[in-house]
TrEMBL record:
Species of the source: Paraglaciecola chathamensis
Protein name per Swiss-Prot or TrEMBL: Small-conductance mechanosensitive channel
Family affiliation: Belongs to the MscS (TC 1.A.23) family.
GO terms for MF: mechanosensitive monoatomic ion channel activity
Subunit: Homoheptamer.
Amino acid sequence: MKVLLMKVVLIICLCISFYGFAQQDNKEASSPPVFSIDAASQTLQQTVLNIWYDFIAHTPYIAVALLVLLLTGVFSMLISKLIGNMTGRSKMRGSLKALTQRIARIIIWILGILLAALVVFPGLTPAKALGGLGLASVAIGFAFKEIFENFFAGILLLWKYPFEKGDFIECQDILGRVENISVRMTELRRPDGELVVVPNSFLFKNPVFVLTHEKSRRIRIMTGVAYSEDARAALPIIQRAVENCELIIADKGVEVFLNGFGSSSMDIEVTWWSEPTPLGERKSRSEVVGAIKQALDDEGIEIPFPYRTLTFNEPLPVRSINDENTRD
């Protein structure tokens, strides 16, 4: 609907601009009519007749202009089909193929409208036609600024191939699988099933993380053992537990390091590789966490919960319950 509205506005602006330039010379050559109150009705009648006579006189030109527009439509369809056949053999993205066809049709239609305007208005010169086209372009550019911004951003996204249909991307807290990439917007399917329509200018201006650009993704978690335990002995236990998991990429290897001193435990960092999709990451993380917990429990190694030490500046008084019972 927006594309049709843009075409209608473009045609109207071009016609108004061309008509104004074509009638400029006629206005300069003719002398302004003299009006009076008594001749008002005659002037109105004469004006209507002049409009009708002008329409009759321009009927052949209008017919030829309509024929030019008809041929323009046929020619644009043929060129679009030819481009589709030429790009169909290449590895070009489908959205980029459609964009190439659309740009070719727009160029052909602009040239066809210019030619039709020259036919309808014989006094219109190519220089004036280009001037009218420039004025119309400025007006349309201001009216549809955001649409053209998304349009050109979509061209750059399609041309640079930053992500493909089916990739998982993340941009400004928006995470989802790419469902479709069009000229003006990109459709994302979130993990919860919701469809998010993102303007291409938003993706072009902000950092985009392509989670599935590679076939694997590195996952990192933190665990810990109590200070009373042998932290070095816990490292190979954790590594064997993770390596025995099924939802990891074993070829990439598993890494386990002592990371630091926590408030209640010796912190241990565990890293491994899994599928890049959000669902694959969650499944792998769940399996690894459960395996680490089970392995440490089997070896009797404590995974501590947070401890808190209370320090009192004054000694606390102690009262014996037995003494109170004796008094009673």
